[in-house]
Structure formats: C-alpha cells, structure tokens
Target: Nucleoid-associated protein EUBSIR_01657
Amino acid sequence: MKARLPKEYQNRGANNMNSMIKQAQKMQEDIERVQAELEARDFTASAAGGMIEVTMSGAKVLKEVKLNPEVVDKDAIEDLQDVIVAGVNAVITQIEEVSAAEMEKVTGGVNIPGLV
Model:
C-alpha cells in the first residue's frame, strides 16, 4: 500500500526550488542594478587637511584632482593635476587587468558578476 500525501504537500520540493531560483535571479538583478547605479555616481574625498581633493566615478575612473595652491608652484598646478589623474588611472587599469586574469584562472573562464 502506498501512502499518499495531501495535495498541499505534493510538489513542495519543486515549488521550494523554483522559489529559491526566483530569489537568486532577483538578487542577481538587484546586484546588477546597484552596480550600475554606483558606476553612474561620482565620489569626492579630501585628504591632508583639505590640501587635496579627489573625484572618482563609481566605475573607479579618476575624474579630477584638485590641489591646494599652497602645496605646489601655482604656475604648474594644472599640469601636476593632469599627471596625477593619468598615473592613478593607469594603475587602476593595471589592477583590473591582473584581477581579471587571476579570477579567470580561479573560475575557469566562467563569468561570475561582481567578482572583478
């Protein structure tokens, strides 16, 4: 004789699995949305008692460096700011390239959003 489960218990495992899959998909969509929102924002921070102010996008691209004129020669301040921006962006690019290569080794080339 076979035992029969009441209808509310039948397919419960499948429904639970479907619910978990939907939750994971929603979480992935939320993560992607938040990442896009952050990348669209600009962030500004100051250091050294306000002697330097740096603005970077959420995508980690340095946009501007402002130096207090007391720190450098007033005639060369714009050139110095541009060189700092270029140097910081170059090292960020290098870090991202190395990180992507290392993650690819770990994941076997499988793209996992948000890891790099």
Remarks:
- The CA atoms of residues 14 and 108 lie 30 Å apart.
- The chain has two domains: 1-40, 42-111.
- Helices lie at 12-40, 77-107.
